[in-house]
Amino acid sequence: MRMSTFIKNFIERETISRRHFLLASAAGLGAAVLPNPLGGSARAALTDPAIAWSYRDRASAYWNSVVSGGEAFVESLGKPKSALVSLINEGSSEKSLADIKAFLAKNNGNCALACDANDSPNARPIVEAVAAAGGYISTIWNKTDDLHPWDFGDNYVSHMTWSDEKPAEETARILFEAMGGEGGVVHLGGIAANNPAVERLNGLKNALKDFPNIELLDAQPADWDTQKGAALMSSFLTRYGDRIKGVHCANDNIAYGVIEALRAEGIEGMPIVSYDGNPEAVQMVMDGQLLATVFTNPHWGGGITSALAYHAATGSFKPSEEPKEHREFYGPTVLVSKKDAEEFKAKYLDSVPKYDWADFWGPSNGQIQYRS
What we know:
Blueprint: H1 5-27, H2 39-42, E1 50-55, H3 61-76, E2 84-88, H4 93-106, E3 111-115, H5 123-133, E4 136-140, E5 156-161, H6 165-178, E6 183-189, H7 195-208, E7 214-221, H8 226-240, E8 244-249, H9 252-264, E9 272-273, H10 279-287, E10 292-295, H11 298-313, E11 328-330, E12 334-337, H12 341-349
Parallel strand pairs: 1-2, 1-3, 3-4, 4-5, 5-11, 6-7, 6-8, 8-9
Antiparallel strand pairs: 10-12
Pfam families: Peripla_BP_4
GO molecular function, one term: carbohydrate binding
Protein name: ABC transporter, periplasmic solute-binding protein
């Protein structure tokens, strides 16, 4: 069966994005960071800091939405979109850190950065490099539990993540109900060291406790990637065959690959749930190809993360004077199922809501809680 036009084009865009990344790497950010003699604590408010977003790729609708939020923020400052520098790491933690160090060196630390560190252990060296150079950084998604903004004075402005466990549990329950409460399920996850990958698998496992006739056949990382998702689903089909009655995906990109792997085997109508609430996935929910996805408002998340770093850098507010719930907090989540997908699409996707980028914590969802 022929590959759907959307997913075929999506995979082609991923490949092109990687080529562009390699060309940019060859041309650009290879310099080592230069030490800032002032250090992070000696510098006062910055003047017109360079603004950057460090993230995985432009191939996915999710990261495009994050960056569009950052661009909307810089435009609110009267700057062009191009004033937001993209530091694209393509899933490499080493590249993420090297590019940030090069950006700091190029701008002598006069920087405001928004960043997803790619994996949790990479967050600390990134934050330490930014603080040492006198820059300011706000992070999302990935950091270790022992890394806190308040341990770095003002330079580590904030960290936002999303409480993925409960929404992933909700999608799993929708999946299990569609399976009739019995049969085998497989989970295709993100990068193993990513906080959201861990939480989304935990959500699935939580739901399993109430469905004794559902068997988790396998759970493996697909690295948030469509092509890896397709390859992994093909291997699951080879190993487990028709024992698979449902699929739990850690993000929408993986789900696209799962659908193609199923179609290659002539399988239609398999119950599938995913995560991210990308426009294509929402349409698939409306069309019945996916049961549910979860929206994390990446446009708002991308814009407000940039805004926090920038306004802290320019002295609009002092992070160290803010309560802890303003420095580590959850972003919003919205479960999207067939019954509400059309209403959701009209509200969030057909036209992008306008946000007040000075309302730093308006849609946020409380302080991050850690397991003891």
